[in-house]
Design brief:
Distance between the termini: 126 Å
Number of helices: 19
Strand order of the largest sheet: 7-6-13-10-9-8
Shape: elongated
CATH superfamily of the largest domain: Alpha-catenin/vinculin-like
CATH topology of the largest domain: Four Helix Bundle (Hemerythrin (Met), subunit A)
CATH class of the largest domain: Mainly Alpha
CATH architecture of the largest domain: Up-down Bundle
Number of domains: 4
Strand content: 15-25%
Number of strands: 20
Helix content: 55-70%
Largest sheet: 6 strands, antiparallel
Length: 779
């Protein structure tokens, strides 16, 4: 029978308390009995002593014959009677003894007898009677004392026997209780402690709970549960450590590999270091949301053939069962991890025979490889244990998937950057631009092939030399002022430099920009130079071939720049939209807006460049309003005008009339005129100058000959173009100022072919005015 430990202890405590109370009562009773016995003994001894004094007085008076002295004896007898009455009234004396003593002693009679003798006459029989009474009283008092003392001793001894028996019973009860507790509590506890020690040391597998009952059994079960919980926790911790180690190895693989295929392969192999994973594959998502496996790997116990067989079975079953049974497709479409704890539930075991999945039990976790809302693919992991893919494990795997997505995003960015660098190289080659990487002191660290080719030495031999050994400023005042030259090169307009020793002379518009900065100071400087308008060369045929080659390259490069700029705009717009979703109601990121604006400007310039750079056969029938063609020309030449410090002031008619012109031909005219104006202003005003500006005005007006016309007027403060420069027969060398005679003649012929007029006038040293007038149809 099981006794609840709590109730047992409570009952024991109550019993011990009652026993102690009883023992205390017995002690009090024993004390009372002893006190009564002492009190009675003292009273009886006092009576005997008092009687002995009375007897001595009586004997002395009788022997001396002084019978009158017996009168005082009577008073003493009365006092003795009072003391005897107080003894008889003691409640500790049994009533039987009280009655016996009261009947045996006649003190009042003895007092009367003494009084008779003291008064007289004395008779012999009175004396004999007094003597007999005195003797009898003494004997009875002695007997009474002995009887009372003996009775008190018997009662005290009897009660002590009771106390001793009670104490013996209490001791026996306590011993029994101790034996009970030793058997039911102490011994099981000691045995349980010993078992726990053995389990902790590893010499015992578990606790033996058989035969336990009550709270001891519950305590044993609690210890057993704690040990099981500790074992489960230890197993879970070991499992978590394996997952952490596998994920860490995969992260190291991400940092180590530079190509996508090797990255996927190494990540799968690193994750399989966790022996609970049996199969891992990575797939890429297409535009329709379907997943195509790229890399798959199985556990070390699985051969390549078995791995391929498992992949074929799993993918076939997922395709047949639909989207709901395809964790990889679900993860890609939902952009969230998907876990299926019994992925092989409906797959016949016969298909999996001979593989690690032959038991028919496996869990699958599909994690989307996503970065900035772009899904690159999915990471699918198969495990044999049903306890895999708990929240903590999924958190680690999600972080790994994010790292993998970031690596893919970085690889795409690197490829895009490499493409842009290749594009830059092709652009530099097509434009014959030079580039130098300099130290802050001016030493050359690296040079592009264009610069090395112009210098006539290898790029390695250029490294370490001073950049001034190859480039010199056009302005004489900057030849010896190196700090001033560097300051001008760092400015927005840059400085014109001449390549030393080159024939013919090559002039470049150069700028210096910082490359990398550490602590606010640039570690490297980049010097970039774009070729300016070149002087005549002897080989016109070679120059034409070269210009034709550059034009061909520029067309292809322009298309690629257009594609890249559109991609740049799209990426920036996606980032701006994501930021608006994350922070609704907040102003848009200024940097992203600037990127979008700059990308749109690049796209617009390249679009115009492609439009006007096509061959004439391709552009046949391409007519645009002349005002639009003029605006496009300013857009294409805006950089050169700005870089040379030319301020362009425009006053365009708000709603110009539509005067259709051949876009490519008229663009050639405007670009030629703008180039001549730019060259004239650059020749007259070096560097930045407030007079270095170009005013362009468009308006509708009345002409006495043509009627209503649309006029375009360009006014600059450069050198004047002679009137005869518009004749085709004038040699180029006959134009000392600009050298554009034949080109102006071509421009005038093109304008006249469109029914318009081109005129030039001005005042030497003050201004030049170039006027286009096109008749308006219907007027």
């Amino acid at each position: 029978m099981a006794f609840p430990l709590k109730k047992t202890i409570h009952a024991t405590a109550v019993s011990v308390t009652l026993i102690l109370v009883a023992l205390m009562g017995l002690g009090i009773r024993q004390y009372q009995l002893y006190r009564n016995h002492v009190e009675v003994s003292q009273q009886t001894e006092k009576l005997i002593f008092q009687f002995a004094i009375i007897r001595e007085h009586v004997t002395e008076n009788l022997l001396e014959g002084q019978y009158g002295g017996l009168a005082s004896v009577g008073a003493e007898l009365e006092e003795l009677n009072l003391n005897l009455a107080s003894v008889i009234n003691n409640r500790s004396i049994d009533d039987h003894y009280k009655l016996t003593l009261a009947n045996a002693i006649d003190l009042p009679g003895l007092v009367l007898l003494v009084r008779k003798i003291s008064v007289g006459p004395v008779k012999p029989e009175y004396l004999r009677q007094l003597n007999t009474e005195i003797r009898t009283l003494g004997e009875r008092l002695m007997l009474f004392d002995r009887v009372l003392v003996e009775h008190g001793k018997r009662e005290l001894v009897s009660f002590q026997n009771v106390v001793i028996g009670a104490l013996a019973m209490v001791v026996s009860l306590i011993i029994g209780m101790l034996l009970f507790f030793q058997r039911r509590l102490i011994a099981p506890l000691l045995d349980l402690v010993q078992q726990v020690k053995e389990v902790a040391s590893g010499s015992r597998e578990g606790l033996s709970i058989a035969g336990r009952s009550g709270e001891i059994s519950e305590l044993a079960y609690s210890f057993h549960d704690l040990l099981m919980a500790r074992e489960i926790t230890a197993q879970g911790l070991a499992k978590f450590q394996r997952v952490v180690s596998a994920v860490k190895g995969a992260q190291l693989a991400i940092a180590r590999n530079k190509t996508r295929d090797s990255l996927f392969k190494e990540v799968c192999r690193a994750l399989l270091a966790n022996h609970e994973y049996c199969l891992i594959w990575i797939g890429l998502a297409d535009e329709g949301g379907d997943v195509m496996p790229v890399t798959a790997d199985g556990a070390t116990s699985m051969s390549n053939k078995e791995c391929e067989a498992c992949m074929a079975i799993l993918l076939t079953e997922a395709e047949e069962k639909g989207l709901e049974q395809n964790p990889a497709a679900l993860a890609v479409r939902s952009k969230a991890p998907v876990v299926r704890m019994d992925i092989l539930a409906e797959i016949p075991k016969g298909l999996l025979k001979g593989t690690p999945l032959a038991d028919g039990h496996a869990a699958c976790a599909a994690l989307p490889i996503i970065w900035q809302n772009t899904v690159y693919g999915v990471l699918s992991i198969y495990a044999l244990s049903a306890t895999d893919f708990d929240p903590k494990e999924m958190e680690l795997l999600e972080g790994l998937a994010n790292d993998l997505a970031l690596a893919l995003h970085t690889m795409e960015g690197q490829q895009h950057l490499a493409s842009r660098e290749n594009l830059h190289g092709r652009l530099f080659g097509a434009l014959q631009a030079i580039q130098l990487t300099l130290t802050p002191s001016g030493s050359i660290l690296a040079a592009n092939p264009i610069f090395a080719g112009m210098a006539g030495i290898d790029a390695e031999q250029i490294s370490g030399r001073f950049w001034r050994d190859f480039l010199a400023p056009v302005q004489p005042g900057l030849t010896s002022d190196t700090p001033g030259l560097l300051e001008k090169l760092r400015s927005d307009e840059g400085a014109e430099l001449v390549f030393s020793g080159s024939t013919p002379v090559r002039r470049f518009l150069c700028r210096v920009v910082p490359d990398q900065e550490t602590g606010g100071e640039p570690e490297q400087l980049i010097l970039v130079g774009y070729p300016l308008v070149r002087q005549e060369t002897a080989g016109n045929g070679e120059a034409c071939m070269r210009l034709e080659m550059i034009a061909s390259l520029a067309g292809g490069v322009s298309h690629e720049v257009s594609d890249l700029s559109n991609g740049l705009i799209n990426y920036a717009q996606v980032l701006a939209d994501e930021e608006q979703l994350k922070r609704p109601g907040q102003p848009q990121n200024e940097l992203l807006l600037k990127i979008i604006e700059a990308g749109e400007r690049i796209a617009e310039i390249v679009r115009k460049f492609i439009l006007y750079g096509r061959e004439e056969s391709q552009a046949a029938g391409e007519f645009l309003p002349v005002a639009t063609v003029l605006e496009d020309a300013l857009l294409l030449t805006g950089y050169h005008l700005k870089s040379e410090g030319i301020l362009v002031e425009t006053d365009f008619e708000p709603m110009p009339p539509a005067v259709p012109v051949h876009a490519q031909h008229m663009q050639q005219v405007f670009l030629t005129i703008l180039a001549s104006v730019r060259a004239a202003l650059a020749q007259r005003f070096a560097g930045r100058d407030p007079r270095k500006k170009l005013a362009i005005v468009t308006r509708s007006a009345m002409d006495s000959v043509q009627g209503r016309v649309f006029e375009i007027t360009l006014v600059d403060q450069g050198a004047v173009i002679p009137q005869n420069s518009l004749s085709e027969s004038v040699d180029i060398k006959g134009i000392p100022v600009r050298g554009w005679g034949r080109m102006f003649a071509v421009c005038r012929r093109i304008v006249e072919d469109h029914g318009g007029l081109l005129s030039v006038d001005g005042e030497e040293g003050k201004y030049t005015r170039i006027t286009f007038s096109f008749p308006l149809k219907g007027d």
